[in-house]
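G., the chain you wanted modeled:
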Amino acid sequence: MRTNWLVRIGSTLNMALVTLLAFLCLFPFINILAVSLSSGGAIVSGKIFMLPVEFTVESYQKILNNAAMIKSLGFSVYVTVIYVILAMLASVLLAYPLSRKSFKGRTVFLLMITFTMYFSGGLIPTFLVVQKLGLINSSWSLVIPVLINSFNIIIMKSFFGTIPESLMEAAVIEGAGEFTILFRIVLPLSKAMLATISLFYMVFRWNSYSDALFYINDNAMYTLQLKLREFVALSQMNFDPTEQVDNAFVPEGLKAASIIFATVPILLVYPFLQKYFVKGVTLGAIKG
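Predicted structure as tokens:
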């Protein structure tokens, strides 16, 4: 009886701790959402906590009425989709051979991949390479330089290593080649891991800002993050703090609306991949 009592207390404390941590994680987002839906006067006076004050959607209207913003959203979606497809294809074709014990020299390749996790070529050399390849002001500058992620390759390789060798040996006896084994046996058994790594790549590409800032000079090819930065900066420059702001927007409200606008598209994808997330990462960590 005493043991059950202690278990219930422990479970209650764990639930309370998890609830508190969840609230701490969600609070900034809730506060930003409330700010984006509040009037300028309420924002300036600091009245907003978790609920909108003097509800208004003017900041969102200014964003959605900007044709260049919608174009940047479409361009970001296009680049993200292309990047995820190519990055997953390249990662699978690299990780699968490294997971096979019969692959000669795999230790050397793994050391080379691991080395890049700690040391990189640097910002200026990378920019010069992109420039010499003629990728400046090209959507490929946002794809090719970051096509492979070493951490994701290691996770993928570890996951492939958990698949029984007997399945592959049986396929070889039946006359299957390596590509048949990969696409007919290995990948169908790796759906959880593939969804997880796809999510990693998607979030990385969607949130990336610096590479677009360095490689894209054409305003018509700005990603959503760059366009939002430009839009908010121009609005802040044109804002006169001496004007009446009781019923008007202020730059802080526009910033909050921009954050929500850039975050919502990626959040819409999470529910479809969330069920694979924990399973994919956990299984990939079982075997090195």
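Residues 244-248, 284-288 have pLDDT under 50 and may be disordered.

Shout if anything looks off.
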